């Protein structure tokens, strides 16, 4: 199968790493961090920063850099960074690009979001392992398997949701999954499951949130007569359709478009919005700040 | 002052007219209407039609045509059309391009929507008379007058809204106004006023409705962390921010945009969305169908 | 495999048909045609018209209608229409939705355009038969076959283009193809081939034409430092990259995007632009007028 | 007159400053610069960097920071930075937000770009002084003066361009202008004039460059039958319409839009594209790199 040219995240030698930081804002953070990295021998490739408020706010930073032999030196460098991180009250993490993040995709009956993710994954645009595709229907089994991926059918019977979720969690734990992507998975996850993967479950909602939260958003959009429809990729929280938004996009529609047209047009939006959100998460471009996200693109 | 090239609606000789029709859908309407116009000597310039449902729905039609001496023959032709209209249970109207529709603009303190309308009006893009600019503040007086337009300052004191509205209605009646445009007019109109101008009051709401209806939409949008903001032009009904939507548009924003940035970006969306909605209304391109609009662009 | 909800073109009973007309503009055409259809028992579902100039121009019309037993009555109705068509000097055709149009897809090494077409075809959005996928490389063979489609590998050796094209033409003739889609097929067709399928070969060019015609458009776009890139679907003529444009779309890029990024972003534009153009052609929404197109959407 | 909420550039106390740097890329630049600023007492508000190639390329950096008493300490800090700048072979500059940059606007007969700039200037979105509006026609005199700005009418007679330009240059020198904005100024500047303001003349071209360079771009676009039109703001070089692009934007059009429609639609694109480009230049967000621009938004 053909492979596309690599996305930005892959333009790395083996020595590429990232550092993600958030801490109370104060002068000198950039100087301290960049000096530390320079001293360790890093060449900074890209650096993004954002402060919610320079005087009292939270400071966010994402650095991507090359550092010779980073994979063997990772723990040593993290230890060396610890005193500085502590003195600035940082929440931080240090990432190498390998091993890749491990993603489980949940789908139901509709294929468009799943296929988009799998295509981009195969073409190299999503830099991840996909150990698992889980569905409450059997219909997408062939699609997953045509990409060489294990497909796990876990039916969700009414009144039996808990049992199904236990099996899901078991599978996810076995596969040591870092991220769950709900690719038009038409079931609501329990708080227990959501709490186990905080900031690590991405859902695609088929409307421009917060408009048309809940069920049947295209029907709602048609009834309201909007001239633009959209889709929203967001982190899942226990508050339905209200988690931090990662990405949204929209498309014009007209009075001529009925509900089926809206669904058809919406599918194109959904799949590209979800694919972008997943790519950004995998590249650690998304930081959560309360119920908002900082996206360093 | 320079005048721009004329918009579509003005590309008319003196013999240009329009016909707007809605009726229960059934076979033969297009044939009957176009045959009638042909018999009267009309040359159809453009024709748009839409059926909410070919079997049981409502049929909408907009025709633009040249008909020699239409202005003197208008009533005769309308009389001749009456039997056909009745037999098909039509709601219909027949319009010549002159005299122009008469528009009153309401504004408060912000100038951007008012100025956009006046600029497009002066350049010929809005084909209307503007007998009146009304405001509850004096601040935009100079702006209106620099376009040679009468500016009426009607303060709206708390508890005195009714008195203010009486004066507004008096002025509107005097000026025989066809359309009221709320160009960021920050007061809620009473049901009495709304009922007097059904389908003839256009408001610009500074959000992508139905998201963030009500007050302070940019503050709401910031708090929710949306990645796209928008504006909505809609007909005013007694149900606040819930009337039929005419036009919407949106713009991307990021985590870096604070509430003031959203307002600044939003102003550009608001003014162009409102200007387009007003232009389409003036060209009779907008038909109301329940709480939705049919827009023949 | 799941099937999506049907697109507009398929919302037809078995009695759906279309009429496509172009002729010198003059008064009475709409009346004459709609009267004819009404007399035959048709219910017009949608009607679009356009005149390049009401006084001397060309008139274009597309009607979609339901007419009971149209498939058996097709020839009879066409005969009945002939006198009117002749009197108005019409170029016209009459189409039923079945049998479907037959499409051959040409591809080379890149899969994204081919897969997008096949996915939309499988989901019912492209209402066509695909008797043939032709490629000058073997690499996409598996992709085509996974959709159950015959894949024909016809290598194009340097200096042997004519021989390859003879085989292509032979295959196309055998399959009685109505439309050829060049889905990133990286070979130039000979004038002989182009002439055999006038207005029936659609190409996707990976730039916003007429900018960056010819080879390596993304490299050209990068060198010029544009802030927006695009893709263009057009009919192929013997004048390279200069045929009538059907559809274009664009996406923002920044100085951070290198040539590989432009290619990656561009792939998303290419596949959706090509898919829309092919859908519109299949629904007979595209009429060619000189080197421009009329697209009745 | 009402003033809008302030744009990003104005969110400054009196102690806000910027540093713009370009130099050969090598490790340690970020650390050295941020350490220097920290030592001087600066609090970095925003920092953007870009490297055309981490190994051999050019490194660009823009920092915005608060530094107490910067206006009195400006020269002292610049002197202190000099050794570091020299050791890293930097091209650099150090800017305080006051005094504002001084902008001359050139216009001809069309008002839309001029008015857009003046509105945004009055609302505070363009943080500049405008000592001069120059035109080769008298028609916009009233517009400029209604904003309280000096309007200089310098006719450009055929064969007398040099004489006119001498007067322009004289006026520009008198007004110590930092930036010239060609707001649909329909004359070509001489190489002498262009050379005097390198990277400091911004033009709006009414097409999506490089498509339709030269005269009558809307006529060209219509003839080519494009489905999207655009506008391009670029720095003026002696190579006509080929200078570094700052910003572009586009809008969909259809076969129904004739040349006048394209001009009307295009005016809206032109004015917003030009206004954005000018704002970014004034905020020193645009760095020129060969024939491309780095835009730190």
Explain how this protein is built.
The structure is a homotetramer. Chain A has eight helices and 13 strands. Chain A is an alpha/beta fold and about 300 residues long. Chain A folds into two domains: about 80 residues, ACT domain (Alpha-Beta Plaits), CATH 3.30.70; about 200 residues, Rossmann fold (3-Layer(aba) Sandwich). In chain A, the strands form three sheets. Chain A has a seven-stranded mixed β-sheet with strand order 7-6-5-8-9-10-11, with helices on both faces. A four-stranded antiparallel β-sheet of chain A has the order 2-3-1-4, with helices on one face. A two-stranded antiparallel sheet of chain A has the order 12-13. In chain A, β8, α6 and β9 form a beta-alpha-beta unit. In chain A, α3 runs parallel beside α8 and α7 packs across α8. The first copy, chain A, is globular. Chains A and B meet through β11 and β13 of A and β11 and β13 of B.
Pick out its properties.
297 residues; alpha/beta; 4-stranded antiparallel β-sheet; 7-stranded mixed β-sheet; homotetramer; 33% helix; 13 strands; 2 domains; Rossmann fold
> Helix-strand pattern of chain A, N to C?
EHEEHEEHEHEHEHEHEEHEE
The tally of beta strands of chain A, per DSSP, is 13
Mean pLDDT of chain A: 93
How is the quaternary structure best described?
Answer: homotetramer
Roughly what fraction of the amino acids of chain A lie in strands? 25-35%
Which two chains touch over the largest interface? A-B, 29 and 29 residues
CATH architectural type of the largest domain in chain A? 3-Layer(aba) Sandwich
The CATH class designation of the largest domain in chain A is Alpha Beta
Euclidean distance between termini CA atoms of chain A: 29 Å
Measured as a percent range, the helix fraction of chain A is 25-40%
Morphology of chain A: globular
Q: Looking across the biggest beta sheet of chain A, what order are the strands in?
A: 7-6-5-8-9-10-11
Low-confidence stretches of chain A: 1-11
Task: Please tell me how large the radius of gyration of chain A is.
Answer: 21 Å
Count of spatially separate domains of chain A: 2
Task: Write the CATH fold name of the largest domain in chain A.
Answer: Rossmann fold
CATH superfamily of the largest domain in chain A: Formyl transferase, N-terminal domain
Number of helical regions of chain A: 8
């Amino acid at each position: 199968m053909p492979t596309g040219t690599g996305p930005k995240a892959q333009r790395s030698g083996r020595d590429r790493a990232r550092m993600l930081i958030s801490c109370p804002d104060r002068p000198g953070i950039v100087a301290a961090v960049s000096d530390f990295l320079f001293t360790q021998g890093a060449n900074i490739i890209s650096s993004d920063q954002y402060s919610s408020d320079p005087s009292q706010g939270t400071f966010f930073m994402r650095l991507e850099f090359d550092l010779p032999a980073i994979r063997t030196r990772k723990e040593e460098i993290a230890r060396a960074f610890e005193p500085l991180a502590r003195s600035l009250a940082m929440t931080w993490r240090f990432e190498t690009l390998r091993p890749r993040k491990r993603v489980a995709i949940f789908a139901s009956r509709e294929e468009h979001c799943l296929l988009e993710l799998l295509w981009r994954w195969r073409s190299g645009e999503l830099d991840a392992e996909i150990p698992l595709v889980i569905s409450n229907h059997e219909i997408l089994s062939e699609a997953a398997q045509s990409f060489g991926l294990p497909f796990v059918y876990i039916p969700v019977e009414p009144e039996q949701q808990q049992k199904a979720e236990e099996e899901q969690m078991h599978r996810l734990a076995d596969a040591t999954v870092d991220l769950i992507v709900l690719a038009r998975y038409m079931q609501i996850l329990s708080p227990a499951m959501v709490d186990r993967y905080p900031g690590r479950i991405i859902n695609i909602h088929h409307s421009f949130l917060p408009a048309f939260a809940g069920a049947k958003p295209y029907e709602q959009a048609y009834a309201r007569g909007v001239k633009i429809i959209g889709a929203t990729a967001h982190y899942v929280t226990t508050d339905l359709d209200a988690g931090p938004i990662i990405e949204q996009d929209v498309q014009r529609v007209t009075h001529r478009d009925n509900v089926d047209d809206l669904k058809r047009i919406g599918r194109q939006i959904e799949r590209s919005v979800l694919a972008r959100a997943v790519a950004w998460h995998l590249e650690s471009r998304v930081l959560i700040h309360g119920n908002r996200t900082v996206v360093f693109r």
